[in-house]
Design brief:
The protein is mainly alpha-helical and 453 residues long. The chain folds into two domains: 7-297, no CATH class; 299-448, Serine Threonine Protein Phosphatase 5, Tetratricopeptide repeat, CATH 1.25.40. It is built from 25 helices and five strands. It has helices at 13-16, 19-30, 35-38, 56-73, 81-95, 129-132, 138-153, 156-179, 188-195, 199-202, 208-224, 230-245, 251-256, 261-273, 285-291, 293-296, 299-313, 317-330, 335-347, 351-364, 370-381, 385-398, 403-415, 419-431, 437-448; strands spanning 40-42, 49-51, 106-110, 117-119, 124-128. Strands 3-5-4 form a three-stranded mixed beta sheet, with helices on both faces. It has a two-stranded antiparallel sheet with strand order 1-2. Strand 1 and strand 2 form a beta hairpin. Helix 7 (138-153) packs across helix 12. The chain is globular, with a radius of gyration of 24 Å.
């Protein structure tokens, strides 16, 4: 629904929803006891039954809907068709050896500078340029990708969703009883846990047992793909060393893939005992260096960006700006460095300068959405609401479905004096279940304009 309303939000949950939706929600709540049966599936790795919260089709659908936004948050895939093609070739070898070769796998190197890799439940994988520059051969890359494929094959995200569904249903049952005495705007978030699973939830921290299983599967897949098992040992050793030398770069990696000495020792022991004969395979170092040569030429740029982002996190904005300037002196056409410089400038309220870097970024990488979104924010700060609205519409075409875009479209429309359009955007934003300061602002505006009471 995207129309203005002239009455207050309804006072009961049944009034707030259509009767059909209300009965559906109550049916979901009432089926909590049936969930362990209806949510059971055979684990493709172990062959045992396990509770899952997503079917395979749902895994693919969530992957398709959530991965583009996350990849854009990490500044998009690098503009190096050869490198991304190489990633796809390595992945194809490993995917064919996995327990779920039918999944729609894909792989790309991302412009992000921190050290990480992740995969959505349908098999869409992102590997940051930060970690690509730390690995030394294709065997280590195969170990990294094999580990990520292990999470997909063991259906770790689906299993976690199955456990969370039980909790969410119980919360809905409890909240439905409370909701009847609250304003209707309180009810919108109740539907969110059951209807939306965001990228952050899909990529949340795995359990220790999940990580052990993914490590084991990853080594199995890479060895089956004709790689040296010492690639996994080298990968674990590199990450162990990075944790001591550059802990800030691994913060996200540790959040989704907790690293411990145990995992390095397990990889070393497994290589020595289970895969003794395969350790004689020559590591594919030259092939890796050849295919990452273009990326390695950017190493000074990436390292300057890493330092700049660390300074940004500490709120040392002028120093961060200096590091991004250094990165741009190395590589003026680097999309990530231009976007990061713009962020540093915007944080210092230098919106005009920031917008100049964003214009450059958009010209460098026209199909990537983050610079477009930031350009909209910069134009709002510069009191150019019409131009801002155009940027947000362009962003929505590149990455549709981001609720926050509706809020900023509302802000731009309001600044143009178009209250009716603004109210529609704010209302749509609230319908998404948004919470926090921006949601409070939207509610306040709708109340001021007598759209709601």
């Amino acid at each position: 629904m995207s129309r203005l309303v002239s009455s207050p939000f309804p006072r009961s949950l049944e009034d707030a929803l259509s009767r059909r939706d209300f009965l559906w929600l109550m049916g979901v709540a009432g089926s909590a006891l049936l969930l362990p049966l209806s949510g059971c599936a055979v684990d493709p790795v172990t062959g045992q039954k396990t509770l899952v919260g997503m079917s395979e089709d749902q895994e693919k659908s969530l992957d398709k809907s959530q991965s583009p936004s996350q990849f854009s948050s990490d500044l998009g895939a690098v503009q190096d068709a050869g490198l991304n093609g190489y990633m796809q070739d390595v992945g194809t070898t490993l995917w064919s050896k996995s327990h779920r070769p039918q999944m729609p796998y894909s792989a790309r190197v991302l412009n992000a500078n921190y050290v990480n890799a992740y995969t959505f439940p349908g098999g869409s994988m992102g590997v940051t340029r930060g970690i690509m520059l730390e690995m030394q051969n294709e065997d280590e890359l195969a170990a990294l990708m094999g580990h990520e494929i292990g999470h997909v094959n063991a259906r770790h995200a689906a299993e976690r969703a199955g456990k969370e569904m039980l909790t969410n249903v119980a919360l809905v049952v409890a909240n439905v009883a409370i909701a009847s005495s609250e304003n209707g705007q309180q009810y919108l978030p109740l539907l969110q846990p059951l209807s939306q699973i965001g990228a952050s939830a899909l990529l949340a921290k795995y359990s220790r047992d999940n990580e052990r299983e993914a490590d084991s599967l990853g080594m199995d897949y890479m060895v089956a793909g004709d790689y040296n098992p010492d690639g996994m040992v080298g990968l674990m050793n590199m990450l162990r060393g990075e944790a001591q030398q550059k802990p800030s770069l691994l913060e996200t990696m540790f959040a989704s893939h907790p690293m411990r000495e145990e995992r390095y020792q397990t990889a070393r022991r497994t290589a020595e005992q289970k895969y003794t004969s395969q350790r004689g395979r020559p590591p594919k170092r030259e092939r890796y260096l050849d295919n990452t040569a273009g990326l390695r030429r950017l190493q000074p740029t990436v390292e300057a960006c890493q330092k700049g982002e660390a300074l940004m996190a500490k709120k040392e904005l002028p120093q961060a700006e200096g590091q991004f300037g250094l990165a741009l002196r190395h590589t003026p056409s680097d999309y990530a460095a231009n976007v990061l410089m713009a962020k540093a400038l915007m944080a210092q309220k230098k919106s005009q300068e920031a917008d100049s870097y964003l214009a450059t970024a958009k010209s460098i990488y026209p199909g990537e959405a983050q610079a477009v979104h930031l350009s909209g924010l910069a134009k709002l700060a510069l009191r150019q609401p019409e131009a801002a609205l155009a940027e947000f519409h362009a962003y929505d075409k590149l990455l549709p479905g981001n609720p926050t875009t509706q809020f900023f479209m509302g802000a731009a429309s309001e600044n143009m004096g178009r209250k009716r359009d603004a109210a529609n955007f704010y209302y749509r934003y609230l319908q998404s279940g948004a919470q926090g300061g921006e949601a409070q602002f939207a509610v306040a505006r709708l109340k001021d304009w007598k759209v709601i009471k």
